[in-house]
């Protein structure tokens, strides 16, 4: 999915509102723009929004994670969207610098996205300083979804409508309990994660009312080594699962409780038990 109509969204969050207004102001210019933010916050959507509001005749897209086959020679003005600028190799940075220095009228307008602080990369000599100054005339930082509390209901409704269109459904609504389940999650994957969860809920919904059971979160367990073995008691399995989930979440009890499907109070009681046993 990963598309947002910023004109259709009634943005309430102050910081995001400022980002949108500055985007509109910049759209009519040729200023190079760097959009930064965590994975999944909507950097590419905002970049395409700026391009859509500009008078640029064409858009070229360069993925710095996978630049193989990209032909710099075909660029003739327009706008170049550079995704994941922080992943650009030295060779790719050199190619971009040659493009920046063009004087034959084929130099494009540059809009870049990055998850990392490119300024810090410059200081660490991981990124060319001269290229940074050319590509980052203006910075826009998109806040995390978790920090956009006032925008959350609007974003949920927008994604829900788009997901229904995609899957040929209409009239679906979230039950209060389902919405509360969504609202309690910390959204480490930001809007992209929310899209994933809501699209799955639309597909799974058995009636017009989406229930909490339709809201299923993806739990990242690839780094979790579960040392369970046949013959272990259920209480021991439970203890190891709780402690290893806490380790996975860097001791974030709220997130661990969410992942385990228990209340924070239950988790707290379990941890108190383990302390009495001398485990913690």
UniProtKB/TrEMBL annotation:
Identify the domain of life.
Bacteria
Protein's organism: Bdellovibrio reynosensis
Q: Where is the Sigma-54 factor interaction domain?
A: 1-203
Nucleotide-binding is among the record's keywords: yes
- Report keywords, A-Z: ATP-binding, DNA-binding, Nucleotide-binding, Transcription, Transcription regulation
A Pfam family annotated for this chain is HTH_8
The protein in question is named Sigma 54-interacting transcriptional regulator
